[in-house]
Amino acid sequence: MLLMTSISGVGLSFLRVITVHHLWDKFCDGDYATAYAVSSLGTNVGVSLFPLTLHHLELYQGTRGATTLMGGVLLNTIVVAMLASPRTPTSRRPDGSHSDLGSNSSHKNEKYDSAPASSGREQRWYEKFDSWALDTIGFIRRNPSFPLFLVLSILVEFSFVTWALYLVPYGESIGMSRERAVYLPTIGGAAGLLGKLCLVVAARFESLNALNVFAVPSLVIAVSYIVTFLWESFGTFAVAALFGGFCIGLQGSGKFALVPHVVQEQDFRQAIGWLLTGYTLSALSGGIISGLLRDLTGSFSATFALVSSACLVNSLLALVWWVYS
């Protein structure tokens, strides 16, 4: 199980990196935010359908059979990617060899032929580190608001990871049957789809900012969690999943759509690298910290209280950023 999750995590990271960079290459002239928001709509379809589907498959096929079938469904990603990949047309030269019509081979050869010769000395590790440190300092100087943006994004991912992992067990811990609890992420996923549709509209009108991507959604998520501490019922949890899922869906894609408004165009790729690094760290720490807190206290309420606190901090920091930006 550990090997399976590790490999799937690597695959997810590749998919995110490739998707963001490909969309930036295609839509960097102004429609990137809208394009990313549209491309991420399918994520919430999966969040809505997978938990419920997996639960019913487990009833008839067992855990191994259910995960095998779902893996087969995910293999369609490879087929779709291959069908969507453009093929470069080729032409036959007089000597019988082939050449790519779309490639600039002559220009590439000129580029490599004119490249300066290497000094022959490989940089030492501390020289590479110094170069990286200077590059990072320059990046932060050019984009002074990015460190705060990165912190807000990490808190968002921490909230999402805990919500995704422990929402169903939290419902079961207060007496819900598993058959009812699995509907909570379905409700949240469907609401997240609506949140991303709202993001598409906001991105289209270029009205994304720290207030509507971080501050207000984080506050709504915190309040929805706090409400579940007061009234422990399926209806309360369903409403909390509805509002929380809507805001998580908006935030999850909103932070990537907001990157061009935070950093200079030349620093976009480096910013995405830092953002995905923060995502990985929060994904690793979110489940561990939240699970450890549950084990120490014996209650999922403590876990979601921690997430509520993180969301309130996120909302306050984002509000300050929006006011002074």
SSE layout and pairing:
Elements: H1 2-27, H2 32-39, H3 41-74, H4 76-84, E1 90-92, E2 98-100, H5 105-113, H6 125-142, H7 146-173, H8 178-181, H9 183-204, H10 210-230, H11 234-262, H12 268-297, H13 300-324
Antiparallel strand pairs: 1-2
Characterize the structure shown.
- The chain is mainly alpha-helical and 325 residues long.
- Helix content is 81%, strand content 2%.
- It has a two-stranded antiparallel sheet with strand order 1-2.
- The radius of gyration is 23 Å and the shape is globular.
- The model is unreliable at 89-94 and 96-119 (pLDDT under 50).
Mean pLDDT: 76
Task: Measure the end-to-end span.
Answer: 46 Å
SSE string, helices as H and strands as E: HHHHEEHHHHHHHHH
Q: Radius of gyration in whole Å, from Cα?
A: 23 Å
Q: In terms of per-residue confidence, which ranges show pLDDT below 50 for 5 or more consecutive residues? A: 89-94, 96-119
Give the structural class: mainly alpha
Strands side by side in the biggest sheet: 1-2
Tell the overall outline. Answer: globular
Helix amount: over 70%
Strands, total number: 2
Content of β-strand: under 5%
Sheet of most strands: 2 strands, antiparallel
The DSSP helix count reads 13
